[in-house]
Inverse folding.
């Protein structure tokens, strides 16, 4: 092959840029990032951007804790740009049936060193006075949770990587992985084949198209999710905290100024392929958001509709990520299946995957996320049941 790189990173979203940046910092040789469209043009450009650490298992909690620390201290950790972090607090209200699960998670997370507590309805009313408390038995609270800006993070990592020698091509999609003798040898692109020693696949919801032809069958399925942005009138109350309500399944966060974002689950919305996703909001989504708000946030239900969008996301059978070398293909590293909760994991995953690629000891042991765990029957636990993303 005429062209050669030490590592090719495929995908220019949160994970591809975070990993590429960390590879360059570690001196991984010639690192080439290939993105079929533009930086942040996939899921990462559509994310809700929530920063929380509430998880049911240690591995994702540790990744979220380390990742959130980077987001909160971007200047010291990355040094270029900022993550647009806004500290609001994070609240996860639960019904009576989930109180034990929530208390258990809070105790495990506090033992890991996280500032979190289980709060009752009267404390919840103080933390977020806009909430109608019907059906809420209590909740997990992280006072320093909040939200950040994926575009800023991607640009910061790209600029940081570029300063350390990162090379990149945009509008350059990988059409195939080149695998010979059980080892990755390169990637095929419309501009020609590129030989390489290692490939990091960070193509999010588009991964299966590249993996199936080389015999890697990871159990990734796709769903569509929608996000809405609304505006409160001048002087009207605004949401204070980022809140995922496990009772009614509405998720709300403040945004800049009088804007706020809201998500409500709108049917199951499975997808066969990521490119099948309609990026416009569904007819009826506005009505569904208003219904959800009137139940949980009555003072927000009449806010002015600004816009809404949808994206595809990749999820695994235990709703946790898939990180590690692909079974049967040496040199092919997977960073996939973020299951709708990858945002705040991306900084730490960059460090971990870059270490794995260059053969160093990762700062967090992610063996529990290995691709083979499904075949081995070692799925991760979810305290709130499938699809709860915690
Ligand atoms: C609407 C929505 C809301 C969300 N909200 C949250 C949230 O609040 N919190 C949270 O943690 N997570 C959330 N998520 C999930 C989060 O956005 C994802 O986990 C994260 O963005 C995944 O990043 P990624 O880099 O894996 O994928 P992407 O950002 O999709 O990046 C993959 C990139 O690969 C490129 N690509 C694909 N195929 C090829 C190819 N063959 N060759 C070259 N390039 C290719 C794509 O163009 C894309 O840019 C949300 C997702 C959606 C859709």
């Amino acid at each position: 092959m005429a062209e050669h790189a030490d590592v090719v990173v495929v995908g220019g979203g949160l994970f591809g840029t975070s990993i590429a940046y960390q590879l360059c910092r570690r001196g991984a040789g010639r690192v080439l990032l290939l993105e079929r469209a533009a930086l942040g043009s996939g899921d990462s450009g559509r994310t809700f951007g929530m920063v929380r650490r509430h998880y049911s298992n240690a591995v994702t909690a540790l990744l979220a804790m380390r990742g959130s620390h980077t987001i909160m201290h971007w200047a010291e950790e990355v040094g270029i740009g900022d993550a647009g972090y806004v500290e609001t607090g994070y609240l996860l209200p639960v019904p009576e049936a989930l109180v034990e699960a929530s208390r258990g998670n809070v105790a495990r997370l506090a033992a890991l060193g996280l500032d979190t507590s289980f709060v009752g309805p009267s404390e919840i009313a103080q933390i977020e006075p806009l909430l109608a408390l019907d059906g809420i038995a209590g909740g997990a609270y992280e006072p320093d949770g909040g939200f950040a800006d994926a575009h800023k993070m991607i640009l910061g990592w790209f600029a940081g990587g570029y300063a350390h020698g990162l090379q990149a091509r945009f509008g350059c999609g990988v059409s195939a992985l080149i695998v010979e003798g059980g080892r990755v040898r390169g990637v095929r692109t419309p501009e020609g084949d590129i030989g390489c020693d290692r490939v990091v696949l960070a193509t999010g919801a588009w991964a299966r198209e590249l993996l199936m032809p080389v015999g890697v069958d990871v159990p990734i399925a796709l769903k569509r999710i929608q996000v809405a942005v609304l505006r409160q009138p001048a002087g009207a109350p605004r949401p204070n905290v980022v809140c995922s309500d496990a009772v009614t399944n509405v998720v709300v966060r403040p945004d800049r100024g009088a804007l706020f974002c809201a998500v409500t689950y709108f049917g199951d919305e499975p997808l066969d392929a990521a490119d099948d996703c309609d990026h416009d909001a569904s007819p009826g989504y506005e009505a569904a958001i208003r219904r959800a708000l009137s139940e949980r946030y009555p003072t927000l239900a009449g806010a002015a509709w600004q816009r809404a969008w949808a994206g595809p996301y990749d999820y695994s059978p235990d709703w946790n990520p898939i990180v590690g070398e692909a079974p049967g293909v040496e040199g092919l590293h997977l960073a996939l299946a973020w299951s709708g909760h990858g945002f705040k994991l991306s900084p730490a995953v960059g460090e971990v995957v870059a270490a794995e690629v260059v053969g160093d000891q990762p700062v967090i042991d992610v063996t529990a996320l290995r691709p083979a765990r499904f075949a081995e029957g070692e799925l991760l636990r979810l305290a709130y049941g499938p699809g709860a993303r915690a």
Remarks:
- The domain at 3-49+150-219+317-373 is CATH 3.50.50.60 (FAD/NAD(P)-binding domain).
- The first helix runs from residue 14 to 25.
- The chain has two domains: 3-49+150-219+317-373, 89-145+221-315.
